[in-house]
Design brief:
The chain has 147 residues and is mostly helical. The protein has five helices and no strands. Helix 2 packs across helix 4. The model has no long low-confidence stretch (mean pLDDT 84).
Length: 147
């Protein structure tokens, strides 16, 4: 749950006009699944190589979507002010070993949460039924929007 204790509106940058005219017909580019922090071409290539290596080594069929949890862990670290400062203000050679240890620690926590969620989902019929109702309603609404 998000609790907002204080909110302060601050002006950043020059004002920009975002209004559209009647004749404007330019299309918007799609939002990628990593949001504002898109992969560079080199990062996307590296991720593809990592996925290919995991798949060949483990006989799996992982895709980019399977790696969202790792990006979420990375974002969690970036959202931590102490870590953001450390990443910005230190030599990468000094901070990388600590980053790797923190990334692994937080990834393990995420895997534990996944396991707990999986167990709760499989064992709690009432909660599963409630979730299925919600997901069904969202699926129907999504299908109606797409039609």
């Amino acid at each position: 749950m998000l609790e907002l204790d204080a909110y302060k509106l601050e002006k950043q940058g020059d004002p920009q006009d975002a209004s559209l005219g009647a004749d404007d017909n330019a299309s918007f580019s799609p939002i990628d699944w990593f949001g504002a922090n898109q992969f560079t071409e080199e990062e996307a290539k590296t991720l593809s190589e990592i996925i290919e290596a995991f798949n060949s080594r483990h006989g799996a069929e992982f895709s980019e979507e399977d790696y969202i949890r790792f990006e979420a862990v990375n974002q969690d670290i970036l959202d931590d002010d102490t870590w953001a400062e450390m990443l910005l203000n230190n030599d990468p050679r000094d901070v990388q070993p600590r980053f790797e240890a923190e990334f692994i620690r937080r990834t393990i926590q995420a895997f534990h949460r996944d396991g707990a969620m999986q167990n709760a989902f499989m064992q709690d019929q009432e909660a599963r039924d409630m979730l299925m109702q919600l997901m069904f309603r969202r699926a129907v609404r999504g299908a109606e929007r797409a039609a």
